[in-house]
Amino acid sequence: MAELSVIESIRTTLWEEMKRDPSVIVLGEDIGQRGGVFLATQGFLEEFGATRVIDTPLAEASIMGVALGASFNGLRPIPEVQFSDFIWPGLNQIIGEASKTSYGSNGQLNAPMVIRIPYGGGIRGGLYHSQNVESYFFHTPGLKICAPSTPYDAKGLLKSAIRDNNPVIFLEHKKTYRLVRGEVPDQDYSIPIGKADIKRSGQDITVISYGLMLHYCLEAAKLLEDKKVDSEIIDLMSLRPLDIPTIVESVKKTGKLIIVHEDNITGGVGAEIAAMVSDLAFDYLDGPIKRICGPDIPTMPFAKSLEDAYLPNTQSIYDGILELSQY
Hints:
By secondary structure, the chain is an alpha/beta fold. It has helices at residues 6-20, 44-48, 60-72, 91-97, 101-104, 134-138, 151-163, 176-179, 212-223, 244-254, 269-280, 304-310, 314-325; strands at 2-5, 24-28, 53-55, 76-80, 114-119, 144-146, 168-173, 181-184, 197-200, 205-209, 231-235, 238-240, 257-264, 290-294.
C-alpha cells in the first residue's frame, strides 16, 4: 500500500498501463515536456517518447479527432482535456462520432479511448476553468462515464476504462487532486464500470453523490450522528451506466433519498436518478426525493463569496438531510 493523492494515483495508473500495453498513448495540450498543467504525465515524455506522449496544438476538435482515428487503428488513446471548459470544440467527435461507432458499425468497429476531463469548482477557476460538464455526456448512449472520488477508486476505474473497448469519459474533480489522499495498493486491480460503492452504511436516509461532493456528504453524515440520523452514503463512481440495483435497494431500506451534485440542478444526473427511483421504488418512499445541487446559472462565478454560494457544502447537505429526516 502507498498513500497517494488523487492526481498521484492517476499518474501512477497511466504509467503502469503504458508500461503494460504499448498500444496505450496519451495526447493533449502541454502533456509532454511540461507534464500537463496538473502534472498527470510528468516524466512520461522521457520514458515513453514523443510517439506515445503527444503534445498537441490548442485544438480540442483535432485532439478528439486524432484520438478517435487512432482508436480505429489498434491504439488505445487517452486524450486529456486541459480543463472541462475547453471540451466544447471536441463534442462532435465525442458525441457525434465516438458514441455511435459500435452501434453504427454493428459491432465491427470500436473506439477504445479514455477522455480525461478535470472538472468542477472550489479552486476559484472562474468562468472558464470550473464547469461541470457531465450531463452533456450522461445524456448520450454509447458513452461510459466514470467519476471517482478517492485515489483507490481512481486507479481501479482508470484501469477498467483503459482496457474497455468503448469510449469512456473519465471525470476528475480538480479540487480532489491534492486535497484527497488515501491508500492505494501497489498491485494491479480494477473496479468494474457501472458499479456504485456504499461508502457508509445507514438505516434512515440514502444520500447519493460523486466526486468532491461525496466527501462533503460523508462529513455531514458524521455530524448528523449527534442528531441520531443514520445516513447511508452511496458513491456512484460511474454515472453511465448507473448502478440502479444498489440505489433502489438502499432506498427500499431507508425510505428517503437525497441526491447531491454541484452540476446545475435542471436536467442533471440527480433528476434522472429521482425519476428512476420514483418509477422503481415509489411505494417505499416516506418523503419527497430531494436534490442539493448547483443553481441554474450559466457558469461558476469567480468571486469566492459567489463560488461558495454556488457550491453545495457540508452545511447545506447537513441541513437537507436533517430536514428530510423529519418526514
